[in-house]
Every structure is written in C-alpha cells, then in structure tokens.
Amino acid sequence: MKTTIVLVLLLCAGLVAAKDGATTKPRVLILTTGGTIASRSDAPLIRGPELVQAVPQLLDYAQVSVEEFSVIGSSKVTPDHWLRLARRINEIFASDEQLAGIVITHGTDTLEETAYFLNLTVQSKRPVVLVGSMRSSNEVSADGPANLINAVRVAISDEAIGQGILVAMNEDISAARDVWKTDNRRVQTFDGVNVGHLGAVDPDGVRFYHRSLQPHTLASEFDVSAVSTLPTVLVLSDFTGLDEAVVKHFGELPMDGLVVRTFAGGRMSAGMLAGLSSISRRGIPIVVTSRVPKGRIVSAPDYPFSAIVSRGQQDNKARILLMLALTKTTESEAIQGIFNLY
C-alpha cells in the first residue's frame, strides 16, 4: 500500500509566527498515521496537517512541523508499515541533527506493537513518543489534544533522551517494551502491567522515575535498513480441550516462526502439546508466552519438543522480537539468548 507523505510547516500555516521567542523553541516533527486521534463520528479520518493545526497550544512548547505518513486505523497496520516507519525515522534523524524529537500519532489498537518494533529498530537516542486517544475528536472531553500536547512536552524533555521509544497517554509515560492496552474504552487504558509507568507529564513539567534496562534503540542489535520483508511469524492461542488436529492443521501454514499463547507458567493443553510436537519436526522456532498479564514464565516446563521461552513479553510483542531475531539467526539457542536479553 502506498502512502502519501505531505510536509507542512506550521510556521507557514500562519499559526504562529509572531510569538516572541518562538525561534528559540526546540523543533519537533509530528508523524501522523491515523487512528482514533484523527477520527470524527461518521466522517473520514482527519488529515495530518489539519489534526495538528487544531491544537495551536503546541506552539507554546515547540516549533512543530507535521508529516503525514499514513491515514489508516491502526488495526490495518502491517509489518510493512513498521519497516517503512522505522526507516523514515532513522532517515529524519540522520538528516536533521537539530531536531529535538519525533511524535507519532497512532491508533490505540496496535500502538504498543508499533512502539515496541520501533524500540528495537530506531537508531537514535533522541525521543520518539507515540500518542493516541480513546475518544474521537468530536466527542465530549476528547482526550486527543491534551495527549498530543503532552507527547510534544515529553519529546522536548532532556530527561526523555536515551529512554527508548515512549508512549504518552493520559498524563502517563510508558516504556514501549512494557506498555499494554488494558481497556477497550477508558482513557487510562495504557499501563505497564508488570513494571508500571516510567514517569508522568505534570503541569509543572515532565518527570521520570524509572528507566528501562533492556537494550533498545542505539543499544539494539537489529538493523532493518536493508530488510525488505520481515519473517512470517504466526500466533496460536491455547484453550481448554483444544484438539490436536487443529494445531497440526495450523502448523501446515507457511511460517518462519510460531508464538504460542499458553496458560499460566507456560502450561499447555494435551492437544497443544501433541500438535506442537508435530510442528517442531519442521524445525520452526516455537516461542512460548503466557496469557496471564502479570508475572512471567520463569522456566520452561518439560515439553516433548524444543521451545523458546518469552521472559515477560506478551504474545504480540514476542512475535515482533521473534521476527527481528529471525533476521539474524534461526538457531533456537541463540534466539533464546535474545529473548533473555530483551
């Protein structure tokens, strides 16, 4: 799918200009992709320039420009979008050393996945902040404008430098690795279920209280600059009474890797165990995750096949990490080492 990219400098849009000291403010680029933050009831998605121009208070904090990357709901995002977005961010940072940071407006359905992919593939310590909204722009108490302002505030914060890819929603700052969407409607949906938030956006400033210790951005080993297509990794969920035949049939699909969403602690139904034994004979790397939101699989149960254990990533993020790991190796032991590290 081709996307149209439009660059509009707000200084040229007449929103600012005569503010004293405006030229001394840090510069932020807002990359728009669509999503609820760009939605109106019974109307097409708002285009990038219009979305940003509707929040002139942004100019109290930064010189803002906007580039429209895509205009889609985030449920339509694909791995190809991730690759192109990561490459575009790296191009922008490489060509503009004075840019303070980048804010990405994004739908909330897959925001955490895009954030995690970028966390492992953006090659800069400068802040990249993803932001969305839970309410459309024409709803009462729409949360998009405040979220967008706070995301820009985070992007220009010195404390955000080197923190990896961040998510700024509902005045909370979360690490891309740990953030989950936990509610389908409420504005406090994004949470670091296992480890909490990194910080907060308060009226008097941006405050960080924690730091993510897993490798990210410049410390990540993953380079997608020459990757045209990501490996195919599928996700299969266990459930009570799962028939072995279903798993075997699923295992006949084309795939380079498989993520399995299991019960607590990595325990599986008899049908899943038997079916995965068949799939493993194809030599496909199998990563085991738990459907339980909190805690992690400490050690793998005694499976009748070789398996890689996810050390805390839920299935959607384990899929991303396996995709990237497979660009470097297909050896299970090496992939387990990557999951242990990240």
TrEMBL record:
SMART domains cross-referenced by the UniProt entry: Asparaginase
Keyword tRNA-binding on entry: no
Keyword terms of this UniProt record: Hydrolase, Signal
Span of the signal peptide: 1-18
Chain segments annotated as transmembrane: none
Pfam families documented for this protein: Asparaginase (PF00710), Asparaginase_C (PF17763)
Domain of life: Bacteria
Location of the active site: T36, T108
UniProt key word Hydrolase: yes
Family annotation (PROSITE patterns): ASN_GLN_ASE_1 (PS00144), ASN_GLN_ASE_2 (PS00917), ASN_GLN_ASE_3 (PS51732)
Domain Asparaginase/glutaminase C-terminal: 233-339
Domain L-asparaginase N-terminal, residue spans: 27-211
Family: Belongs to the asparaginase 1 family.
Protein known as: Asparaginase
